[in-house]
Give the backbone structure.
Amino acid sequence: MEKILVTTDFSTNSNAGVVYAANLAKARKAELVVLHIYTVLRASFWSDSEYNYYVQRYKDTLEAELAAFVQPLLQSLNLSPEALKLEAYHNFDIVDGVLEYAETHQCAYVCISTRGAGGLRKLFGGNTSKLIIHSKIPVLCIPSGCPYKEIKHVLYLTDMTAYKKELAKVVAFASPLQANIEMLHFYYSYDSLPDKEYLERTLRNECGYEVDIAYRSRNADKSMLEEINEEIERLPRSLIVMFTDQKKSFFEKFLLLSNAKEYSFYGKMPLLTFNKLD
């Protein structure tokens, strides 16, 4: 069974991610894993067995608290017991713990709540940014104030360098949800682009799924982030998909972190990121 992992720190900010991941898991008939990373500092006089005892004791306590925390969030979803796992996992670093658990247990997606509106540094925060940059597993970022809505329209942003390989992953995400896929590329006047109708037919035959192609001319006076924002305002989508190049600073190079202007899709638009290099 496919596994969808969602992290929580027991804060109300993490509620949106848990609810979103639970609905997604139900729609995809996947197992939901609710994960809390914890750390037990070791006293200098403890033996290995004593330390392991306290690690396990704290784990048991936290998993009981985790059950009490998620129960009111998930009670309306009627998830079967075999489709829900609650896990407290010991690690000295939150992101390392999430990645280690997700890779060891072969999770298909990692879901995390973000902080909401503001500049990108505030929106994502250190742990979420680090998770996106280092994760080999797709990461779903859910703004803390974003209620779950059925995923009907997926917006896939592409630079057209590896779109066939990338699109296969987008289709794998969208098809169980029967969501529409729109592949959007911002181009410069000197770019050579495949014919839209021809490309749509080709992708439909190769992917076995309908994909709408949209080309938008780049405005040199605007950042990519501004243009993405305007496109979403023009026609709201359910979710944005991006592929990150982990050999570069994705946020610095592509989204221009230095621009602190607030954009309207902050705080309400889930973002799914894949590792571009896989």
Remarks:
- Strands lie at 3-7, 31-38, 84-90, 109-114, 139-143, 153-157, 180-187, 211-217, 239-244, 271-275.
- The two ends are 22 Å apart (CA to CA).
- Residues 183 and 213 are 5 Å apart (CA to CA).
- The helical segments are 15-28, 48-74, 94-104, 120-134, 163-174, 196-207, 224-234, 250-253.
